Amino acid sequence: MKRVLSGIKPSGELNIGGYGGALHRFASMQEDYECYFFVPDLHAITVPQDPRRLFQRSKEIAAYYVAAGVDPAKATIFVQSHVAAHAELNWLLETQAHFGELARMTQFKDKSHGKDAVSSALFTYPVLMAADILLYRATHVPVGDDQKQHLELTRDLAERFNHRFAPVFALPEPIIPEIGSRIMGLDDPSKKMSKSNPNRNSCVLLQDDPDVVRRKLAKAVTDSEGVVRYDWERKPEVSNLIEIYAVFSGDDVAAIERRFEGVGYGQFKRELAEAVIAKLEPIQRRFRELVDSEELVGILKDGAAKAAETANDTLLKAKRALGLFTIG
Ligand code: AQP
């Protein structure tokens, strides 16, 4: 059975980067895989979070999963901190992870750069990510470009554990989509579009009104050539907008280039905005119904119970393999 695990951190308001890299594929994935979609709230707190906002954002991310078409009858939707096995397996795997390999993680280097007080949890974040994946014996993990290194570490830890103790874990394969795996900031195509970027014009939020979407995309940086061509080397700004267009329209890059041949950036950006708005509108409608509803609480309770069954089974096997004194 092919099994997928994926999640989006409740570390800020969801933007079209997370949509392109993750959310927009969730609904179709549930047809081909047994899917676990979770809200990684324990990951979010590796950097400071406002507690009230974190609470609300965790609900929001879960509501977006359902609003974007994930069916709780087909996929398991849950919040990471509702399943205690994540924190437990994290600890077991930390005993197997090497300081040096964690120190090589580029995301840690980026996120800790220039900061005085960095939590030790930010450093060990990839081990928790490995625990998330290995608990469910996920065979496939959809990841954006930036997460490839963490998935490699997951495979290394799984192999190390299986070799030293017993074959408890499955080795996951990455699914890196050709389109949408790196959506960059609208203000600066050298930086990933990110929830924690304080510049609100750097991204389109999933909850932005149509006028805000139009304004932000109209302001997105471009070059002065005036040609809609996909070329990350020479035209990163325009390539980024083409990438977003491809995610939201479903068209391939060549078709987009043909469609906008001889047309200026103004027209391209207007049509891009309409494509984004058309996809977001139904998601926003369903999101508003769900976000503070009992229906969502019910989905998450059922999801946590289902997730815990699989997770606890793996955790018990890992504990036994390590020689911990298990009872029951
Ligand atoms: N800009 C992006 N382009 C493509 N994929 C992206 N992802 C996130 N941003 C982009 C992918 O979405 C999945 C969920 O990501 P996440 O929210 O759990 O973590 P993140 O990558 O750290 O996201 P942010 O927005 O940058 O959050 P902060 O600022 O809080 O760290 C992942 O598969 C990710 O690759």
3D structure, described in words:
- With 328 residues, this protein is mainly α.
- It has a domain at 200-288: Tyrosyl-Transfer RNA Synthetase, CATH 1.10.240.
- It is built from 13 helices and five strands.
- Helix 3 crosses helix 12, helix 4 runs parallel beside helix 13 (294-322) and helix 9 packs antiparallel against helix 12.
- It is globular, with a radius of gyration of 20 Å.
- The relative contact order is 0.15.
Quick summary:
With 328 residues, this protein is mainly α. The protein is 55% helix and 6% strand. The longest helix is centred in the last third of the chain and has 29 residues, at 294-322.
